[in-house]
User: Fold these one by one.
Assistant:
Number 1:
Amino acid sequence: MEYNAKVIEKKWQNFWEENGLYEPKPDKSLPKKYILSMFPYPSGNIHMGHVRNYCISDAIARKFRKDGFNVLHPIGWDAFGMPAENAAIKHKTHPKAWTYSNIENMKRQLYSLGFSFSKTRELATCDLIYSKWEQNLFIAMWEKGLIYRKKGFLNWCPKDQTVLANEQVIEGKCWRCDTPVVQKEMYQYYIKITDYAQELLDDLDALEGKWPNQVLTMQRNWIGKSKGLSFAFLLEKKIESSTETLESIEVFTTRPDTIFGVSFVALAPEHPLVKAVLENAQNYGISEEQKAQIVAIQNTSERERAQQEKLGIPLGISVIHPLTQVKIPLWVANFVLMSYGSGAVMSVPAHDGRDYEFAKKYNLPIIPVIAPKDSGEKAQENSCAEDFYDGGGILIHSNEYNGLDNEEAKAKIIEYFEKNQLGKAVVNFKLRDWGVSRQRYWGTPIPLIHCPKCGIVPEKNLPVALPEDVVIDGEGNPLDKHPYWKYCACPKCGANALRETDTLDTFVESSWYFLRYTTPQELREDEVFSREDEKYWMNVDEYIGGIEHAILHLLYSRFFTKVLRSLGLTDSNEPFSHLLTQGMVTKEGAKMSKSKGNVVDPEEIITQYGADTARLFILFAAPPVRELEWNDSALEGSYRFIKRLCAKVEKIQKSQSLPTIESKNLSEKERCARKKVYEALKKYQETFCHESGYAFNTLIAACMEALNALNEQDNVEIWSEGYFILLNILEPIIPHICWELSQEYFGLQNFKEIPLDEEALKEDSIVMAITINGKRRGEIKADLNTEEKQILELAKREVAKWIEGKTIIKEIVVPNKLVNFVVK
Ligand code: ANZ
Ligand code: ZN
């Protein structure tokens, strides 16, 4: 057969679509599999990362369909977000038009790869109906007290009068106009994900072995549970500010065992005490220059501060050490965050890296109080002179605690503080509440209304739609600038009120789309998701996506699912039963990217070779979790394999079922061919499971070997059987050509699971080692259970040169393993 990918691929794509073959069946008594790839952002064109993602999920989906599962394999669009607005500014298009036309193009590209998506479940998160239900959920969460409003710091460009996302801040400056960015405090909406911190942490345990370890660790670190001591340092004298009187400073430490090593107390620049001191800066000997330094730190985001060199300003005031009564100086430091613990730290340079760096820079005392267990007494005295030591050990320079193991000391010191009511044991989480408001146009409008009489009131009339006539020029918030959109009546009292002009973080949309996918189009108008469909399809059996989503997207999705459960909308708790994180696609060792100029356009590959070649290459080049290095000659190789698959067809015995083959009467080549085929089938059955990591590459290699072996023999029955099986195995990977050939030669219009013939897999011959006086001298190949007499004959012939002229004293045969001769 002449291989014409273009014609074949179009033909089968049409056939699949016309027959609705990949739509989930309504019969909910069938066993199900929900196979999900992370949905794409409609940037305009698909890239190789998308191709890889969907090649993996499509292969899995197709396999399970053949095995008789009802499969949901949906596709949709994560369609809100900044790039649409950037495009609007640059190309004077409308974000909506830009987004929907990108979706059309990418859909065309994806379908040209033959992916078996469930069309009836498609969605775009910018669809008005999606906004309606997201706003509904938002209000349900608002009413449950899970959302609140408070001031938070945002990147602000004073010139453009606009909030900037982190990626729009380039080296501290606005991406559009180069103006230095400042931190501005503005009202933001927050979702109380911290209420679920413990649950989000605990439930990771059950995902052990089902999610990559790396992802579990990243989630655990992000949630960041720390146990420690919270206590206060008294100020040497009270500080009176215009608003309050301050007497002490609360700190949080995970290392109370190092408390005798404190050499300064460091405050975040936003700490209320810093504000109070700055009101009377002169009294504390703080210069204008130092004041400016503090303001400068305040104007850098926390992210940037983390990358900066340690920076501090002494506050000209001391605190009293609660155990030694020694005076300790107060500093402002750029490494202390107001958003963690209490925004103040007891600094122990001898045992903490950041404190050490700081103390070195500002010549502050470094007092070692923990000595490594194996260090001698001398070493203990001098430890930490060269560097900090953050390991465990024995307490020194710590009064009555000297000599204690540091873990023991921790407990004892906490006990002391609690008993004397000086402080208490606390648990802190790194996890912060999720700030969800964005001052942007292309997002889901927050469905709240500010009424001068009633306060903040949820909108009754959903959806709140975005106005289409907006000016997007990078200055200010387009919704706020719109001439009348925000003016409305209060839904409660009818007074003149103002609509909220913030929109939601796009991570909100991606936190529940997988639930929405379960619900067919026709039921989507009236329900957030059909309870029955959701119940049947959830959880996602295999979720496939990039490691870049290992933290936020997965955490938010897990959180949303738990919230929706508490709202009675789902029974699901952990939405993704298994997670597969695919590796990057690279070329010349670097991730494909426009800036590096190493991008391979999937569309060009499809045009030149066809979708099946692209799919085969992608799945053959590396196992899914590993990096995939682009390789033109391997691509050619994949193309050649498909052509070879089409080549030898004159031998075919047309039949819709497998011939029965007696393995006894076969020649060695025939038996070998059959064995290779069944080995491939066995591999196929093992490959499609999470535990084996979906190693399609080894499966494909087995198929290639099998095809070669088949081509080396002339038995038509064996050829037909093998071919039949190979087409079946390869269908999830290169579906078009497999459908084509199966129809052509077997009249098949569908694929099913094929049983394994154990008989064919049996080892028919074995290798036996031959030893002489215990030394290995050769080996023979013999049929299984060959008679001893025959084996000895074969063995003697094999090692003839070693026994020539010698006398054999003893012959030992260990059946199917070994022959030993004792000679003299
Ligand atoms: C004294 C100390 C000694 C500390 C030592 C560490 C090592 P995790 O584990 O991440 O919870 N810390 C507390 N609040 C902070 C803030 N707002 N900004 C920056 N750092 C802060 O870290 C807890 C430790 O981080 C605390 O324990 C505190 O330093 C610091 F050898 O106290 B530690
Ligand atoms: Zn009102």
Note: The mean pLDDT is 93.
Number 2:
Amino acid sequence: MGLLDNKKAIIFGVANERSIAWAIAQALHREGAELAFTYVGDALKERVVPLAQSVGSKLILPCDVAKDDEIDAVFNKVKETWRGLDILVHSVAFANKEELKGLYADTSREGFRLAMDVSAYSLVALAKRAYPLMEGRGGSIITLTYYGSKKVVPNYNVMGVAKAALEASVKYLAADLGQKNIKVNAISAGPIKTLAAMGIAGFRDILGVVEKKAPLRRNVAAEDVAKTALYLCSDLSSGVTGEIIYVDAGYNIVGL
Ligand code: NAD
């Protein structure tokens, strides 16, 4: 018996085998969940399809989260195939590379809009389509955030501001959807070497600092994040909603 037997989960944000979303997908699969995946563009399709098939997924759909028609198509397909949904994993973020270096003060209007749209509003756009499918069965929605929402991290810039909006959205969504027995939580992950992370100038230096200063004296792996995701997606977290849970080897508690 798995923790997620008979549960249906959709995962947004697998780009390759290093993606945090992929570690989460594997953990959910091990516990019995049936999975659907989305990808953006043909280049990523080639990477995502074999990964998704390796965990038995039959629903592998294109979706740019900045496009409402593509999101609608995904949820229509989920409704048609599964009739309902139990778990939504949102592991998506994007900002132009030039916004992830230099001064935050130089952020462009378009760069700000894009980062906010893809990294923060997208959670609302997905939750809006997911909750009617979770009606009557309860559900769990999770997203991924980073400490740069709370404190200034060099070069994280507009993404830190987008993550602050994302974290506030988690609380507002949790307040709205709690009465439908749907939990909404975020995991604030420590730095992990992924495609998205490598777009941040000086990312390697951050890994070095965490290893020295974090209470556990190490960086976290995507698998550490996946274990907390499993807790949040399962009944083990039945009384937990609206939380931002740190999986960062304790780094966020350190002052000096
Ligand atoms: P990743 O590059 O593997 O995943 C990012 C995903 O976002 C990719 O699958 C990409 O296709 C998707 N994406 C980007 N623009 C999109 C769009 N318009 N429509 C749909 N999908 C889009 O990197 P990751 O590190 O696994 O990132 C996953 C999440 O974890 C992100 O929200 C990221 O901010 C967050 N996070 C990462 C770290 C880290 O250090 N890696 C730390 C904390 C939080």
Note: The domain at 8-247 is CATH 3.40.50.720 (Rossmann fold).
